[in-house]
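Methods: example folding runs. The two proteins below were folded one after another, and each record is reproduced exactly as written to the output file, sequence line first and structure-token line second.
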Amino acid sequence: MKKRKGAAQQLPYAQRLQMQKEAEIGAHREDAAQTALKIACVALNDTEGLGFYRLSRFAVHLMELIDEYYSDQELGELRLNRRLQQMGFEIGPTGGIQAHQDGNGNPIRREEVGHANCR
């Protein structure tokens, strides 16, 4: 009697490798999101004094935004950049946030940038 191969084993080798690669990317993406969330929570606690309840709401909303972003990355990127620009951030040529400071190290909006330092 012949043993039946599982559905995954019936797929061509290249397709199985591609599926494995996509699963690994998804796992790394989740790890990166969780690490960024941890760092953001600690930073908000340090700089803004936010406590458990506010940070919990922040964490839930952040994960919702991440899920929304990855459902359509192109549209998600446009929406994120638009919101960040509305808040006063500048989006750099590579798509990252550029934060500006005045001579005293205080944050300033992109509209106020003259000879300020950029990071």
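Second run, written to the same file directly after the first:
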Amino acid sequence: MNTLAMNRTLERIAAVTLVAMLGACAPQEQASEADAAPAVAAEPASPAGTAVSASPAALVENPAPAAENFARANPSGGAVERVTVTARGIGPTPTVAVDRAIRLAIEQVNGRSVDASSVTMQQGLTVAISDSSLDLASSGFAERVATHSRGAVTDFKVIQQPERAADGTYAVTIEANVAKFVLPATAKRLKLSIAPLRVAGTTFVVDGKRVAAGEIARQLRESLIETLTQTERFAILDRAFTAELDAELARVAEGRAAHQDISRIGQELSADYLLLARVDRFAYEHHERELRTSERRLVWHTGGGTLTLRLVNVATGQVEMAESIAVVLPGTEPTTLRTAIDADAITQELLRQISDATSGKVVGRLFPITVVAVNGDQLVLSQGGKALTAGSRYKVALRGKEIKDPQTGQSLGRMEEHCCVIEVTQVLPQMSQAIVVSADKDLAAVFAPGALELRDEIKAPVVARPVRDDSDEGGEREAQPRKAAPKTDSNW
């Protein structure tokens, strides 16, 4: 072996020896470092490529859950989104074929509402399509279509060039993004329209004061709209301001609004049900009778209102509900004292009671109020707003087995039995709270979704109204209620 080979052999042996010595020393150095370092809880191994957080929060075994967000959602009147559609048009010329394809694309998304309602857009598309100097597949032509469609069509392109058929017509296929109006969530509710109320006669009388029947009908309709809207069970459609609504949409159709608003045209909702009503009676009558044994006169008041109600399915014309609403106001006790009645207050009270009774009938037929939660003697009811009043008491029925007519197979409803009496303690916009006054059943045991429904309200006895004494002797003071004189009384 020569000198060079021997030197290389010695170098290899030295290198191997050095590696072995370092390997033997490394565990001791690591062990000494571990003895010197403070004890730290071992972290689980992380998957490959995943960073493990060394922050104190990562060492907490049960981190606190995120706080619940109680913020209300932003109100929405609907939104505009873009929908990509493909359409094929056929026409005597390539430009006519493209025109029809574009209009078909719009109809696929919005129906004929946008195309047929906007004269400005129709004229704009005609201008864009009829310019033969532009290549149908060019970006310039696509920009021209997007501009003249006023935002109804964007990102337009021809994906299949016009082809001439044997009959001389041309066919072209396009792809375009079309603006689509998305209805708000409230539009998914049952849609109800309240027709102008009819009246029996031209005037009503309240304590001798004549009130225009048309004004009573108008106020009652407004009260019904308010009450039924606050139940948040219906999408109430008001036709009284159609002209104002049309004027707003005309701004869009004429190009005076944002381009994307073109998709809002033709989105007016149609009613599922039409509420028809006629006011047959609305009165608070002044009665007088002269006493035989003196020159004094006996005076008292009685009154109330009657309304005939129809709920009609608009699509079929079928009458879903027919009711007669009767409201009786407390009368005044017969008295010989001079009396004064606030006719305006009486009118408003009668309007309120008729409106509440009518709304209750409609809501009760379509959306019966149910118990949705039970916690001991505390209950949560499915409606609020003006559907219920704090302090009111109701009977509650427990619904049982469904009964069907053996001849028609039609459901006749469910067996019912009295469950309890409850009192409403708090009314919220969409629900109410109540307490059990008396119960024949264990509510927690029988509770199920839809099993407990409110029935008749337990009305307080009607008490005669006191009257004011406006005589010169006593001044203005409340007269004590007295029993009505019997018909056998010699004074009658």
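Comment on the second run: Confidence is low (pLDDT under 50) at residues 24-59, 114-124, 467-492.
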